[in-house]
Design goal:
- With 415 residues, this protein is an alpha/beta fold.
- Helices cover 28% and strands 26% of the residues.
- Strands 4, 14, 15, 16, 17, 18, 19, 20 and 21 form a nine-stranded mixed β-sheet that branches. An eight-stranded parallel beta barrel has the order 5-6-7-8-9-11-12-13, surrounded by four helices. It has a three-stranded antiparallel β-sheet with strand order 1-2-3.
- Helix 4 links the parallel strand 6 and strand 7.
- The chain is globular.
- The structure holds pyridoxal-5'-phosphate and lysine (LYS).
- Pyridoxal-5'-phosphate (PLP) binds next to helix 10.
């Protein structure tokens, strides 16, 4: 089910006309759907059944305060990777006691901040990090709840830049090393061993790698229990893929059920860290065609959105569907490269797309709710796009388009 649909030949986001939103707020423009975010979140939450669990939404996918607030109102937990993300969660009304803190490079001040806010758990990614958490916790007179992120060495079958669970990736510790690190953690005065965590990559479209990883993790859980280290939760990470093109990833419900069924008979709670599966298809990026241009035999649609707004196509050769906001029957379709104004050959949003368009038309880049705005930048001194949330027939500006002045805020010229 999509949150945007054509009515006659016009695209609507929930009950809001995309053309009207673009006219009012300008382009490029991110539009998200509250109902879709909620529906996707509930799919994870409900599939876990009666087992105690937390859906810890991965904030990096989309960290707009309104997005976080929608989830906070549902009772969501959050997976964060920086002090900044924790600050955002708290600012949006999120509950610190439902926050897990991932990431390979936590600084001491970030650990201290998270301890002061009493987060649920640190997902520890190395022995050196465990030592640092112990030291900071001791200094603050606090006990730090931890789980160890293990790297189960399974091939997630995804793009190499977003695969994280292989031996050669920087994330987590190997299962072999985990035993010794758990033993050390159990001895530490200011560490409380809570759980285990693994996250093998992003945009996975098959269930099997998740289940293979879980098998390896469960073996470790059982062996640790024999050594007297009993874990109270398993964090299965995020990574469930979405349909960008013709992929057929499992539905969150099916995925979560498959995970939950592996844990049957075990007295252990469950944490999910979905990002993309909740947000990607809850958002679109709307952009206007500035010019149509033909070089030799190649047609270009030069649009006002660019790699600084949505970097996924440039960075991962990611394919996202591009559709006209108003369909036109009287314009001859052509094959276009959809490119932005940024001075890079790699600045494209899509290549070789058949579209019936004219200058001034609006295009929607689908599946842009995750890793869209959060990965945007001011490259080429381009103010970042505005963000809108639609809720039925209502729409709200949840982030204003950046002003020109904001481009140099905090910069100083020499005296
Ligand atoms: C530790 C961790 N958890 C959760 C996520 C969210 O992943 P996804 O957006 O693929 O669900 C990521 C990103 O890949 C991650 O690194
Ligand atoms: N940013 C990536 C996903 C990385 C996930 C973060 N660990 C994407 O857009 O697909």
């Amino acid at each position: 089910m999509d949150f945007f649909n054509y009515n006659e030949n016009q695209l609507y986001a929930e009950e809001c006309s995309v053309t009207d939103l673009a006219k009012t707020h300008g382009t490029p423009l991110y539009i998200y759907s509250r109902a879709t975010i909620e529906r996707h979140w509930h799919a994870f939450d409900q599939a876990a059944g009666d087992r105690p669990h937390l859906v810890c939404y991965a904030v990096k996918a989309n960290s707009n305060l309104a997005v976080l607030n929608v989830m906070a109102r549902l009772g969501s937990g959050f997976d964060i990777v920086s002090k900044g993300e924790l600050a955002r969660v708290l600012q949006a009304g999120g509950d610190a006691s439902k926050v897990v803190f991932s990431g390979v490079g936590k600084k001491s001040d970030e650990i201290a901040y998270a301890l002061e806010k009493n987060i649920h758990c640190f997902n520890v990614e190395s022995e050196a990090e465990l030592d640092r958490i112990q030291a900071v916790a001791k200094q603050l007179g606090k006990k730090a709840p931890i789980s160890l992120r293990v790297n189960p060495d399974v091939d997630a079958g995804t793009h190499p830049y977003i695969s994280t669970g292989l031996k050669e990736n920087k994330f987590g510790v190997s299962i072999e090393d985990a035993y010794k690190i758990y033993a050390k953690a159990a001895e530490y005065s200011h560490i409380v061993v809570k759980g285990i965590d693994s996250h093998i990559g992003s945009q996975l479209t098959e269930i099997q790698p998740f289940l293979d990883a879980l098998d390896r993790v469960l073996l470790l859980v059982d062996n640790l229990a024999e050594q007297g280290i009993k874990l109270s939760h398993i964090d299965v990470g995020g990574g469930l893929g979405v349909c960008y093109d013709d992929e057929q990833p499992p539905h969150p419900n099916e995925y979560a059920k498959a995970i939950a069924s592996k844990l049957e008979g075990r007295d252990i709670s469950l944490i999910y860290e979905p990002g993309r599966a909740i947000m990607a298809n809850a958002g679109i990026l709307v952009t206007e065609v500035e010019f149509l241009k033909t070089n030799q035999d190649r047609h270009f649609a030069i649009v006002d959105g660019a790699m600084n707004d949505l970097i996924r196509p440039s960075l991962y050769q990611a394919w996202q569907k591009i559709i006209p906001v108003k369909t036109k029957s009287k314009v001859a379709p052509k094959i276009y490269d959809i490119v932005g104004p940024v001075c890079e050959t790699g600045d494209f949003l899509g290549k070789a797309r058949e579209l019936a368009i004219e200058a001034g038309d609006l295009l929607a880049i689908r599946s842009s709710g995750a890793y869209g705005f959060t990965m945007s930048s001011n490259y080429n001194s381009r103010p970042r796009a505005a963000e809108i949330m639609v809720d039925g027939e209502n729409s709200y500006v949840i982030r204003q388009r950046e002003s020109l002045e904001s481009l140099w805020q905090g910069e100083n010229v020499l005296p």
